[in-house]
Write a structure and sequence with these properties.
This protein is of the alpha/beta class. It has 10 helices and 16 strands. The protein folds into 2 domains: 332 residues, Alkaline Phosphatase, subunit A (3-Layer(aba) Sandwich); 59 residues, Arylsulfatase, C-terminal domain, CATH 3.30.1120.10. Strand 15 and strand 16 form a beta hairpin. It is globular and about 60 Å long.
Length: 428
């Protein structure tokens, strides 16, 4: 009996310790912008766009200058972020095109890992990874979902490009009044308020600055407009981005007033590059391309006392690194399946040297042609269709000087490494 009592006591103590540990786990706020230019926030050089909230994050955290999306379009990019694996490894290399397309919930993913660890989880905004019951945010472990499954919806009427209702709460269509950016911000503030006494994982996935180009303050007569980029202006885009920044500021202020800032990892990122109205200087090209303008993305990380403040890092990184970093911050890195990303914090703290590894991409996107690329330190090798390129990104981030004929040995090495990676995927 004494031994049984001891076992019961030890088990109770273990549960109590686990609950205490869970209460102390850092919160995680992941903020995603869409379809924007690399140069379109103040930490990355913007002068015609005012983003004081994002600038604040940069002053209080680390600004990554050489960080990458895993793909140049929405679906594969987001699938890689949530699973921690290359899109090619999980067989998700195209945007969804049919009702049955999407990211299967049989693939382990970040919201499920965090939910199982005791986090309250929410996705507010864009999903774009499937809408059937086994593909939805709820199926993947998000306790709460308010947002849309389409690539975008109207900011005022919340309808799809085809004019259908597009705003969901969990698994059903809802009607809400308000400018979509503000609505999502309001829900984010409410979610933080409801969960301030327990660890939470909030993904705030704005559709700014996607079409339709509808800035704040439009009269109701214009709520169906803005889908044609040829009728839109840079000023429309700027106003949409600045309204999103105001929302980010409200989220940061809420963390402050609730005493949560010091124990919350905040990540700000794009899902990929944009086009048309964006400014991606000094990068070339944009959406749907493996040129730097399509895949190099602004990324800022803040966790006071853990991540350095007001620093810039040129360590090359990729979206799956955020998956690994979030899991490490939550103390559950051992629960995940094999990841293609690395925890960035030791390198950002100068506790470890920057990782020496290669980054890979492959894309075959509708009218954009077959593309593949590899980055190895300063070198980037690109195949676009049947044309090959080699760039030294340390001196040519804009990819204007093709060194293919000057560095044949480097081209051969990187091309072989890229093809070896692709062949390894086929064997898995």
């Amino acid at each position: 009996m004494a031994r049984v009592a001891l076992l019961v006591f030890c088990a109770a103590m273990s549960v109590a310790a686990s609950a205490a540990d869970n209460a102390d786990r850092p919160n995680i706020v992941l903020i995603i912008s869409d379809y924007m230019g690399y140069h379109d926030t103040e930490p990355y050089g913007a002068t015609d766009v005012r983003t004081p909230s994002i600038l604040r994050l940069a002053s209080e955290g680390v600004t990554m200058t050489d960080f990458y999306a895993a793909a140049p379009v929405c679906g594969p990019s987001r699938a890689a972020l949530f699973t921690g694996q290359y899109p090619a490894r999980i067989g998700f290399e195209q945007n969804i095109r049919g009702e049955a397309d999407g990211l299967s919930s049989t693939i382990p993913s970040l919201p499920r890992w965090l939910k199982n660890a005791g986090y309250r989880t929410a996705l507010l905004g864009k999903w774009h990874l499937g809408r059937t019951p086994d593909l939805t945010p709820n199926a993947h472990g998000f306790d709460e979902f308010i947002g849309h499954h389409e690539w975008t919806i109207g900011y005022y009427n919340h309808k799809t490009e085809q004019g259908k209702p597009g705003l969901f709460e969990n698994d059903h269509i809802v009607e809400r009044d308000g400018y979509l950016t503000d609505l999502l911000t309001d829900e984010a503030v409410k979610f933080i308020d409801r969960n301030q006494d327990r660890p939470f994982f909030l993904t705030l996935s704005y559709n700014a600055a996607l079409p339709p180009y509808q800035p704040p303050g439009l009269p109701e007569s214009k709520w169906g407009e803005g889908w044609d980029v040829n009728q839109a202006t840079r000023d429309d885009y700027v106003q949409m981005v600045e309204r999103m920044d105001e929302g980010i500021g409200r989220v940061l202020d809420t963390l402050d007033t609730r005493g949560l800032t010091s124990n919350t990892l905040v990540v700000y990122m794009y899902d990929h590059g944009g086009r048309h109205l964006v400014n991606s200087e000094p990068l070339f090209h944009g959406f749907a391309s493996l040129w730097e303008g399509g895949i190099r993305i602004p990324t800022i990380l803040r966790l006071p006392g853990v991540i350095p403040s007001n620093e810039r890092s040129n360590i090359p990184g990729i979206a799956m690194d955020l998956t690994a970093t979030i899991l490490s911050v939550a103390g559950i890195e051992d629960t995940a399946t094999k990841l293609d990303g690395l925890n960035l914090i030791p390198a950002l703290r100068d506790e470890q040297p920057p990782p020496t590894r290669q980054l890979f991409w492959r894309a075959d996107l509708y009218d954009f042609g077959k593309q593949k690329a590899i980055r190895d330190k300063n070198w980037k090798y690109v195949e676009h269709g049947n044309t090959q390129f080699l760039f030294d990104l340390n001196v040519d981030a804009g990819e204007r000087h093709n060194l293919f004929y000057r560095q044949p040995d480097t081209v051969k090495r990187l091309r072989n490494d890229l093809n070896t990676w692709i062949e390894s995927l086929a064997r898995e």
